[in-house]
Structure formats: structure tokens, C-alpha cells
């Protein structure tokens, strides 16, 4: 069992973006997204500007476009919702390729695709350049209540415990002649889930008690906090992205 | 048939409505932090982490319903409420949503207030109210607990889905006109099915835990003081 | 062993040139060759991290060699489901960590799991379970949860789960660790009485001498010695080169 | 010890009438009394399931006795956070299962976790980590993931995590199991050189004799014997009554 500080989306590299303290990256990412969402949907040029900004950060962070686009597929359900909107929307209709589509629906669909995609790309960039541990350190420095960071710390660690215990259970079964293709082909998916839950809890509880035995008091020791909190300079560097985005958004609002 | 997932992504609901719900969610979560601190002892801390991890893991399993690409996933509010209580439970679900929004892009960051309101606040609250009611009226048997878990999970999922309908009605970026009722119906129908799956998983998980470690089920400790938890504060460390 | 016309029965275990690297790139086995004849009793010795457990996990296809092959009674381990099932029926492995072995809600269910998968039912199954639990002295704990037992008790149940399957080939990874001295001796008595091929990983050299006439030393992912146990244990220099030592006051 | 006016220093460990039942109702300790003076070296012996691990977990407040009390250097274990923190600073426990102990992504970080919690930083912290890893011979694996190590390697790291904290009282639950013979001896040498109070659970009686001058036997949740190790090991009848036996060919 390990605390897997490098989650699946983390891209090991050294880049200026990787080196930026996590609290700066989180704040920049959140503010950027807010600016995007606040932009009127008809200011098409603004979204082009945001896309350029994302591309610039991705290049700085050495994250390739292929990786970003394949991971952005998580958004797919909402893209489908967006595609359905022109058919469902009310009001004025236009004829496109023989289909009567709602203008409001078309714009709504565009709105969701554009803002959704930009938001997903921004969070993927954060994920690609920040370990989960740094993420928690960042939340901690942004004054997130300790109970929340503590739950988050344990959550990330228990994901590994769950995976580890599931693996052990599978090895135990197959070596004694069972032949399940998936976890849920066990005598009922749910029964397996209940047992896995209990096992993972008891393992995790013992680990937690062992941590207490080594002086853990609800917060990871300060050395874990990496290079120390962000300096004013780093905040300034990090602020460029949301500032540019805010500029674009303000112009767009003023123009429409 | 459109595709729906519970994580609202950026741009579906307009900014002002999102902001109002963000303020609402923040206020409720602050209350949860204050109340949750009292609950979170050596037994609940690892349990809260596991509940969050478990919800995180099952939310990753998006599963298709019907044939037409409608997908949904489990929400976990009832499981959290049963195992760690309403306050810490809501925090657990909220933590899952925050981490998913920050690093997986699952659910827009700007829509976090909406998602937290639906899944962490409405879902958990509805579940806990039902749990409190059902545990008092149903017999104190594993079957009673299973029914409680099943029903509260089912209802909480449907309630959470109607939260989305409400928000869309208030601030949907596209006017669906008469289709809003259709949206409400589809959401309820789809989430009834998801709720059945969620109910089954919640019930078996909670019953399994209650059978072996009744001291770990918050709802049984808090709502059935007649069966006192063992005197030991920290349970079962030894192996 | 090749071209052995006198004895056409294939060896119980035949490991040839097995190389294995863990997913993180760490190479644990650098070409291991090992043959154990039917009914043979072999101790697998070696320092921590030598690759013993890794080798054991190849014997029933839990890990699959990057190079080389493993065969069990003439059947080559492959990804084919039916072959794997048959191999897992023949080879019983007691894991080093009992938590890798036990997963059902009660001890009795856990012990019954293997034989039930072999098709046993009803009275026959119950008899297997009772016999195996009695052998390790855990009969009175049959209805308890395995994860609520002490470490040594779990190890005993882990042994019982495998004994209950009556495997042809028994592979034990550190079976005596965490057992109390009486349980250790009782286990040795049981193992001596079983008509099986035995491969036992152990750091307890006197225990190896007690149970196995042949010993191999694995170090750094390679077999570095293979001899009669008594002779091997007498070679202090060889032992010392591989972090093995006889306990104080013991002479083989 | 009560009214011991000659020696005002409180005993390192003082366990009085401790009774404990697990949440499932299983009573593991039925009133245990045990006192270990400062600098004492005591082996805790007993059959599987006797309650040894349960007792160990009481020594730093991980489990809290239903009845009775535990005090460490005069400080009574209670639920008070500050007292608990101080007690956990003094008592270092090596758990029986290394998987319960290791949880960080790399070996070095895991070893640093305890001392960092004690407030150490920078070069001092690094020195502690290096020293502890060198003591168990795992220095070269410092950047590997603990869950990618062999069982014996993990046990060594688990020992290092506690050594790095420089506890006043060292409690080890079966430290020698799964270690190769050389590592076993090296651990004994380290333990002998440490100026600490030592309580060691073990099934390995010669190891107990090597390291501890006093031994207690726990059986069925009660202390049934407490004596000089050599004398205790000479009492075959007593040993046999509690499933303890000396290995073949060994005379204390
Ligand atoms: N899951 C894993 N991932 C990567 N490397 C591993 C993994 N498991 C073991 N190793 C490495 O492979 C080598 C062999 O490990 P193995 O567990 O086979 O040793 P062993 O001989 O069983 O040791 P021990 O006596 O300590 O049980 C070791 O160097 C170990 O660090
Ligand atoms: N988590 C648990 N829940 C319930 N009972 C338990 C639990 N852990 C241990 N027990 C029981 O308590 C008793 C004492 O267990 P303990 O682990 O203290 O034994 P031990 O002396 O350490 O044994 P071993 O030598 O096998 O490690 C045993 O009967 C065991 O079955
Ligand atoms: Mg091994
Ligand atoms: Mg024990």
C-alpha cells in the first residue's frame, strides 16, 4: 500500500508550471475558469483567446495536445447533451442541412461545449503538473479547513488501499480455483463490494493507528510542504493567466 | 434521448445562479465543518477517508443505462450519511467533488456550488432524514437496516437529480420551453434506475459492515442508543 | 532430466530460464532453472529480496514469465483458462502474507472455498473443512472472521485453506513464521505425513533440514546452489556468501 | 514497585489489571499486570492468540483498556491528546505486520515521517533517516516504493521507521520473522547496542535468550510466568504447558 502521490493524470517532468507552488496553480485555474464562464457566449473571438492561453500553458508545461484531448473525453456526456440542445430548445428556429434547429439551442450547445472544454483543459493542466500531495498542500495553504484536507488526504490514500485489497482478494480467489473475470462476477457484485469495503477499512484503520503511533496529529509534517509557500513573485507569475483571461472577459462583456 | 450525468459542467447553468448556489453550498459546508469536527474521532477519520475513496472509485464507473447512451453513476450520499453521519458525510461527498473538479475536470469548477448542492447537500440531507425516520419505525434487524439503506439511497439519488432540474429552471443557459418538464421526467426516470443500483450497493455494504463491526455504523450509534457501542473508543486495531 | 528415458513421468515442477521484471522495471528473476521430481521435497533458501516469492508466484500462473517457461506435471503454464484452472488445482500455494490468502467472512467458509471450487459438496466438503481445520488446530475458531484473528492464527488458517484442497504439489512461502513453537512442530509433522511434492521457502535452516532432503539457494534472481540439504548446510562459506547462517549452537 | 522509596524513578512501563474486549465481543486480555523498569529488557512469549499483540497496542494508547491502567514513565495513558502525543513520542512500536506500518510513496519518506512529526527538519532529519536505513541495510532502496519490496525488506524498513524516532521504549512485535538469518543477527546486534527499555514479542526462544534477561509468558490473556529468561527456558514443563518448545538441539 502506498500513498501514490503521482495519480494517473500526473505527468512527471520539470517545467516552470510544475515548479509553481500548488496554491498558485489552483487559484489561477479557478479564476481562469470563472472568467471563461462569465464571458458572453456570442463573443466567439474571446474563446479563441482562451484556447490560445491554454495552449501556451500546455506548451510551457510540456503537455502534448494528444494527451490533453484524449483525457478530455470525460466531458463526453455533456457534449452529447449540448448536441441535443438545438433540437430541444424553444423559440426561433433556423434551417441547417434540412433540420429545423433552435437558435437559442445552437448557442446553448456552443456555450456548453466551449466553456466545458476550456474548464476541463484547465483542470487537466493542473492535474498534469501537480501531485496529489501538492494539491492537498495547496488547499491547506489556501486556508481550506483542516478537516477537509484530512478527509482528502485519507481519500487519496485509501484509493490505493482499495485497489491493493481488491488485488489481494483476486489473487486469493484465483489461486484456489475460482475464475472470476471481473470483480463483479463474484457471487454477486454487491457481496464482493461489501467485503472489499470492510477489508479496506480494517487495513486502513490499522495503518491510521500506526501513523498515530508515529506521532501523526491530523496534518502531514511541515517538511512535506515542499519548498515553502509561494513568494510574491510566484504569485505574480501565476496571476498572468487569470489576469489575461479577465481582460478578455471584460472586453467581451463590454463589446456585447 | 439526451445524455445526462450528475456532474454539471461549465456553461450549462448561468453565472448568477451558479454563484448563488456556490454561496449556499459554502454556507452549508461551513456548518458541516463546525459540526463535523465534533464527530471526527479516531474511528471516524479513517472511515471518512474510506467512504470518500469508495465514492470516488464508484463514481469513476460511469455505467450506461438504456440503449441510447444515457449514462449515470452512483452518488454515495446515503452511504456516507449511514457510515459517518450527515455532517462528515456531506463533507466526504464534497471533497470527492472538489478533487474531481480540480484534477479530473469532472464537473466544472465554476459549477462546483451546484454540484455540491445537489450531491453533497441535497443527497445527503434527504438520505439522512429518511434514515432517521426509517430506523425508528423499522425493526432492528439486518433486514430493517437493509431496507433503510436501500430506500434512503434511492430517494436521495432522485432528489439530487431534481436539484439539477431546479437549477436548470432557474438559470439554464438554453430555454427548453415545454421541454423542461420532459427534462424533469427523464432525470427522475434515469435516476430511479441508478437509485436502484445505488440502493443495492449501499444496502449490502452497510449490512456487511454492521454485521461484523456494528460500532462503525454512525447511524446505528447515533440513532439507536438502546444498543450501546462498546466502551472502547478506538476499535479493532489489533490483528 | 532431458532425455530421461527410464522415468517417463514428467517432473512435478519444471522451471526453465524464467526471467521476470516487475512493472516498475525491477528485475526480480534473471533466468531461473529448477526441476522438482514427483514426490520431491525441496527447500528454497535465500536472503531477503532474492526473488523467492516472485518465483513461487510463477508456479501457478499468478505472475507470467517474461522469458522462459514453467511446467507443472508436464502441463505448461500459459494464459489459457482451462490450463490455468488445472494447474491451480494441482498446485496449492500458501502465501507469505496470510492476508493474501483469506478473504471470506468466516474461517470455515474460507477453508471451504477451494474444495468447493473443485466441485465438492455437502458432507464431503464439510469433512474436508473439518479435517483441515483440525490439522492446524483451528477447529474451535471456525465461525470467527479471519481478519479478527491473531497473525499466527491467520497463518494457520491460511495453511488449512490449501491443505483442504489436497493439492498434488504444495508450495509454502515461509510457513513457520509467526507460528508458536508447538504449531511449528505440528505443521512439520503434518507436512512430513503428506504424500505430495513439496517446495518450501524458509529462512529457518533447521526447519529446512527437518523437512527437505534437497535445498536450493536463490540469490539476486539466480539459483546459486542446489544440493543435499545436509551437505549444503555444512558449507559455512557458501551459506555466509548468501546471508544464511545456522542458529547458534546448531550443528546439522 | 508500590511504595518503592529507594528508587523514585517510575518504571518505564506499568500495566495494571488491563482487561480488553474487541468490538466483536472477544475478550483478549483478562487482567494483565506487567512492570518493566527503566532499561529493562523483557521478552513477551506465548502461544498464538494469547493476546500479545493486543497488549502491545495498549502501550501507546492505540487500544484503551476497558478496565485497568497503563502508564509509561509515570504518565498514565488516557484520551487526552497531549498526554497521548507525549506517550507516543516515548514508545516506539514495530508492528507485527509491516503493511500496517508503511504507507508513504518512498522508503525514505516513510522513515522520515516519525522524526518529522517530532519536529526534526533539514540535515538533522536526513541524518536520522540515513542512520536508520543503514542500520537495517536498506540504504540502497531508499527511493523505492515500500509496497514494491519483498516481505522481509518491508519488515526491515518497518524497523527503521521506529529506530529513526529514537524512542525511549522500544516495543517490537515479532521483529525477526521473515528476516534472513544474517538480518536477524544484525538486528540483534543493533538492539543490544541501543540504550532503551525493550519489550520484544517473539516465538523464537533462542532469540529471546540472546536479547532479554527477563521473560514473561502470556497465555489466554493472562500473565502466567515471569522470570529470568534462562531459568524460564529451562523449565520444560512450564514451556510445554503454553505451547512453547526449544528448538531441537538447543540448550539454554
Ligand atoms: N510488487 C513489486 N514491484 C516491484 N518490485 C518488487 C515487487 N515485489 C518484490 N519486488 C522486488 O523483487 C525482488 C524479489 O522480491 P521477492 O518478494 O521475490 O523476494 P523474496 O526472496 O521473497 O524476499 P523475502 O525473503 O524478503 O520474502 C526484491 O528486490 C523486491 O524488492
Ligand atoms: N480485531 C480483532 N477482533 C476480534 N478479535 C481479535 C482481533 N484481533 C485479535 N483478536 C483475538 O484476540 C486474541 C488475542 O489476539 P492477539 O493478536 O493479541 O494474539 P497474539 O498473542 O499476538 O498472537 P500471535 O502470536 O498469533 O500474533 C485472539 O484470540 C484473537 O483471535
Ligand atoms: Mg518473500
Ligand atoms: Mg500477535
Question: Describe it for me?
Answer:
The complex is a heterotetramer, with 1 copy of chain A (256 residues), 1 copy of chain B (239 residues) and 2 copies of chain C (252 residues). Chain A is mainly alpha-helical and 256 residues long. Chain A contains 10 helices and 2 strands. Chain A has 2 domains: 16-138 and 228-255, no CATH class; 145-225, no CATH class. The model of chain A is unreliable at 1-6 (pLDDT under 50). Helix content of chain B is 69%, strand content 3%. A two-stranded antiparallel ribbon of chain B has the order 1-2. Chain C has one domain (10-241): P-loop containing nucleotide triphosphate hydrolases (Rossmann fold). In chain C, 35% of the residues lie in helices and 23% in strands. Chain C has 9 helices and 10 strands. In chain C, the strands form 2 sheets. Chain C has a 6-stranded mixed β-sheet, sandwiched between helices. The chains are: A mainly alpha (256), B mainly alpha (239), C alpha/beta (252). At the B-D interface, loops of B face helix 1 of D. Bound molecules: adenosine-5'-triphosphate (ATP) (2 copies) and magnesium ion (2 copies).
Q: How many whole angstroms does the radius of gyration of chain B measure?
A: 18 Å
| Ligands bound to this protein structure | adenosine-5'-triphosphate, magnesium ion
Q: Quaternary status of these chains?
A: heterotetramer
Quote the distance from N terminus to C terminus of chain B: 52 Å
Domain count of chain A, please report it: 2
Give the biggest sheet of chain A.
2 strands, antiparallel
Subcellular location (chains C, D): Cell membrane
GO molecular function, one term (chains C, D): ATPase-coupled transmembrane transporter activity
InterPro entries (chains C, D): AAA+_ATPase, ABC_transporter-like_ATP-bd, ABC_transporter-like_CS, ABC_transpr_CbiO/EcfA_su, Co_trans_ATP-bd, ECF_ABC_transporter_ATP-bd, P-loop_NTPase
Domain ABC transporter (chains C, D): 13-245
Amino acid at each position: 500500500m502506498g500513498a501514490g502521490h503521482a495519480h494517473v493524470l500526473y505527468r512527471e517532468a520539470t517545467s516552470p508550471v510544475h515548479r509553481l507552488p500548488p496554491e498558485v496553480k489552483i487559484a489561477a485555474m479557478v479564476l481562469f475558469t470563472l472568467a471563461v464562464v462569465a464571458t458572453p457566449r456570442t463573443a466567439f473571438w474571446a474563446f479563441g483567446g482562451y484556447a490560445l492561453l491554454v495552449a501556451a500553458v500546455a506548451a510551457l508545461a510540456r503537455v502534448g495536445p494528444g494527451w490533453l484531448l484524449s483525457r478530455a473525453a470525460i466531458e463526453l456526456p455533456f457534449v452529447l447533451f449540448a448536441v441535443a440542445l438545438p433540437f430541444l430548445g424553444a423559440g426561433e428556429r433556423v434551417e441547417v442541412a434540412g433540420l429545423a434547429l433552435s437558435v437559442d439551442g445552437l448557442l446553448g450547445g456552443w456555450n456548453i461545449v466551449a466553456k466545458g472544454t476550456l474548464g476541463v483543459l484547465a483542470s487537466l493542466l493542473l492535474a498534469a503538473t501537480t501531485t496529489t500531495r501538492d494539491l492537498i498542500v495547496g488547499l491547506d495553504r489556501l486556508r481550506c479547513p483542516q478537516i477537509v484536507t484530512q478527509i482528502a488526504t485519507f481519500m487519496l490514500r485509501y484509493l490505493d488501499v482499495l485497489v491493493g485489497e481488491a488485488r489481494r482478494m483476486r489473487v486469493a480467489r484465483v489461486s484456489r480455483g475460482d475464475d472470476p473475470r471481473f470483480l463483479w462476477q463474484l457471487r454477486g457484485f454487491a457481496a464482493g463490494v461489501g467485503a472489499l469495503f470492510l477489508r479496506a477499512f480494517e487495513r486502513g484503520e490499522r495503518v491510521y493507528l500506526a501513523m498515530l503511533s508515529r506521532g501523526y496529529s491530523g496534518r502531514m509534517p511541515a517538511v512535506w510542504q515542499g519548498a515553502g509557500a509561494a513568494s510574491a513573485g510566484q504569485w505574480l507569475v501565476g496571476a498572468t493567466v487569470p489576469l489575461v483571461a479577465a481582460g478578455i472577459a471584460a472586453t467581451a462583456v463590454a463589446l456585447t | 434521448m439526451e445524455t445526462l450525468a450528475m456532474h454539471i459542467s461549465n456553461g450549462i447553468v448561468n453565472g448568477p445562479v451558479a454563484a448563488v448556489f456556490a454561496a449556499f453550498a459554502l454556507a452549508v459546508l461551513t456548518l458541516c465543518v463546525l459540526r463535523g469536527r465534533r464527530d471526527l474521532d479516531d474511528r471516524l477519520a479513517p472511515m471518512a477517508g474510506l467512504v470518500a475513496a469508495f465514492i470516488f472509485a464508484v463514481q469513476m464507473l460511469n455505467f450506461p443505462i438504456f440503449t441510447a447512451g444515457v449514462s449515470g453513476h452512483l452518488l454515495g450520499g446515503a452511504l456516507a450519511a449511514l457510515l459517518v453521519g450527515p455532517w462528515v458525510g456531506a463533507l466526504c461527498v464534497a471533497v470527492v467533488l472538489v478533487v474531481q473538479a480540480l484534477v479530473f475536470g469532472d464537473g466544472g469548477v465554476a459549477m462546483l456550488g451546484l454540484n455540491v448542492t445537489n450531491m453533497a447537500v441535497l443527497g445527503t440531507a434527504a438520505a439522512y432524514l429518511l434514515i432517521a425516520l426509517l430506523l425508528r419505525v423499522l425493526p432492528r434487524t439486518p433486514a430493517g437496516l437493509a431496507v433503510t439503506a436501500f430506500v434512503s439511497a434511492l430517494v436521495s439519488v432522485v432528489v439530487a437529480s431534481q436539484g439539477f432540474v431546479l437549477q436548470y429552471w432557474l438559470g439554464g443557459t438554453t430555454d427548453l420551453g415545454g421541454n423542461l418538464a420532459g427534462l424533469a421526467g427523464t432525470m427522475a426516470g434515469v435516476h430511479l434506475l441508478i437509485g436502484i443500483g445505488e440502493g443495492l450497493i449501499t444496502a449490502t455494504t452497510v449490512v456487511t459492515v454492521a454485521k461484523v463491526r456494528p460500532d462503525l455504523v454512525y447511524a446505528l450509534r447515533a440513532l439507536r442508543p438502546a444498543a450501546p457501542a462498546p466502551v472502547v473508543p478506538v476499535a479493532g486495531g489489533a490483528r | 532430466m532431458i532425455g530421461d528415458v527410464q522415468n517417463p513421468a514428467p517432473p512435478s515442477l519444471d522451471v526453465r530460464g524464467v526471467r521476470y521484471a516487475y512493472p516498475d522495471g525491477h528485475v526480480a528473476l534473471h533466468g531461473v532453472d529448477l526441476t522438482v521430481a514427483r514426490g520431491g521435497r525441496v527447500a528454497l533458501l535465500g536472503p531477503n529480496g532474492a526473488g523467492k516469492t516472485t518465483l513461487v508466484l510463477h508456479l501457478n500462473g499468478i505472475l507470467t514469465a517474461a522469458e522462459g517457461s514453467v511446467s507443472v506435471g508436464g502441463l505448461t503454464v500459459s494464459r489459457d483458462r482451462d490450463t490455468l484452472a488445472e494447474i491451480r488445482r494441482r498446485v496449492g500455494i500458501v502465501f507469505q502474507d496470510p492476508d493474501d490468502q483469506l478473504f471470506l467472512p468466516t474461517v470455515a467458509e474460507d477453508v471451504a472455498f477451494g474444495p468447493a471450487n473443485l466441485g465438492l459438496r455437502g458432507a464431503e466438503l464439510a469433512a474436508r473443512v473439518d479435517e483441515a481445520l483440525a490439522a492446524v488446530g483451528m477447529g474451535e475458531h471456525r465461525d470467527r472472521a479471519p481478519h479478527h484473528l491473531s497473525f499466527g492464527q491467520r497463518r494457520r488458517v491460511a495453511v488449512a485453506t490449501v491443505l483442504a484442497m489436497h493439492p498434488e504439489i504444495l508450495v509454502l512461502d515461509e510457513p513457520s513464521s509467526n507460528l508458536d513453537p508447538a504449531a511449528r512442530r505440528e505443521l512439520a509433522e503434518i507436512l512430513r505425513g503428506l504424500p505430495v511434492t513439496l517446495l518450501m521457502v524458509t529462512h529457518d535452516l533447521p526447519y529446512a533440514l527437518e523437512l527437505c532432503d534437497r535445498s536450493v539457494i536463490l540469490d539476486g534472481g539466480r539459483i546459486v546452489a542446489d544440493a543435499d540439504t545436509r551437505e549444503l548446510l555444512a558449507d559455512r562459506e557458501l551459506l555466509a556468501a548468501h546471508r544464511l547462517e545456522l542458529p547458534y549452537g546448531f550443528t546439522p
